[in-house]
Amino acid sequence: MARDGIQVLEVLAEGGTRVIAMRCAGFDRVDVGAAESLGIKVLTMSSPRAAAASQAACTTGGCMLLLQRTVQPTLRQAESCGLHAV
């Protein structure tokens, strides 16, 4: 981990942070040794839960795209008929 990452951990520790909970399957983004030496415990989501979280994010994103593609043409059609969305 780069020195700036360790500095971030030091600031977190000074501010009273005691746990870093990550929504991923691995520890590659945090220097666990440095965090533990500062009294910060690093937790990660287990693999099946990480997969479920990514599936939920993809499903939500897909629903948002679907709504955009459905709502925009409907609003355009309504406006062409003289109706205006509120």
Explain what this protein looks like in three dimensions:
This protein is mainly alpha-helical and 86 residues long. The chain has one domain. It has three helices and two strands, in the order αβαβα. It has a two-stranded parallel ribbon with strand order 1-2. The protein is elongated. The N and C termini lie far apart (51 Å). 2% of the residues are buried.
Task: Report, as a whole number of angstroms, the end-to-end distance.
Answer: 51 Å
Backbone CA Rg: 22 Å
Q: What portion of residues is helical?
A: 55-70%
**Order of helix and strand elements from N to C terminus:** HEHEH
- What is the SS-derived class? mainly alpha
Essential attributes:
elongated; two-stranded parallel ribbon; mainly alpha; single chain; 86 residues
What's this, in brief?
The chain is mostly helical and 86 residues long.
Please describe the topology of this protein.
Layout: H1 3-14, E1 19-22, H2 32-37, E2 41-44, H3 47-80
Parallel strand pairs: 1-2
